[in-house]
Model the fold of this input.
Amino acid sequence: MKKTIAMLSLATAALSFQATAAIGQHPVVLVHGLQPSQLSARPGPTEVRADGEQYWAQYWNTHADVRIDWPSHERVAGKIASDYAWPKLKQLAQSNTCVNGCIFVTHSTGDLVTRYILDNQENWLLNEGLQPLNIISTFDFAGAGGGSELADMAVNIAEGGGVLNTTLQLAIALWLGEMPNSSNTGVLNDLKVANARQIAPFPDGRVPRIRFTGDSSEYLGVTSPFLPGHDDGVVASHSTCGSSTVGSFSSCSRSVAYDGKLASQSRGVSSFMPQHYPMLMGSGYTHGGVIGDVHQGKVTAANSRVSLGDGTQVSVSTSDSWSWWSWAYFRYVNGSENHTMSELVANLR
Done:
């Protein structure tokens, strides 16, 4: 039986994590993010597939139908598109997998790869005599479609530019596992902030891109000084939230903070890239943790309701409570006290 993703609908008064009804069920296509070890290893197709399976092993492999695996040592508009994305898109079209609507679940750089796919898949498939895929939404975890300042610094280091101080060296080494050189930057070039924002910035496939973001770090805060505003240890909020501009942002919302505090967010994102809708935010979730199986705290909702490309709506229910300790109201998604961000997205009916 194919695994499918359910639309986000929570029972408002439920005491346990249960769904009230299915808005719709659609096949899921996974698109992973940067895999640093591949930059120097330069794996072949078999290794790329194995790495792709391992990437989603904690949770999402068992909740999806198809993966688009791609190598990090290549470029988005180069072999990532021609040798890895295109064959999978052709397979999906020939099998009619998306005839009733697919949802692409992306992580990190997979956000950028998917944007390129959305911009080109219709022409690619029509030129092959095939029907374009009916992609009704993407669910983007820790999206790097707006680039990462860490990539700018890593490429600069690889090309011999800038000043490499001890803290920056540690930050890049923690992120990539090693210091890059001019021969192994690969997709890091596409992840540079200015470059990322020039790759298919207004894709022909205008489907809702729903964002799920974190505000913590696996790297003990070492990488955060090199990222503007709030970040998840790898990508700043201007990218994960889907902001139309680069900036130092504190939240994906103007009215609720990452930790759920209901208060005006003067540095919250107010202008978004086309069809980008932040939904869930978690102050305790890291860049990798958003797709993992480890609970990293409650989450709040930047938006509680979003329309998909087929006209249906996805929604989460929330509850507000007063904190005497903080002397403020906090808003949390019902069920997030026990379930991970990925569970909130995938297990709802």
Q: What stands out?
A: The longest strand covers residues 25-31. Residues 1-24 have pLDDT under 50 and may be disordered. The CA atoms of residues 17 and 230 lie 29 Å apart. The chain has ten helices and twelve strands.
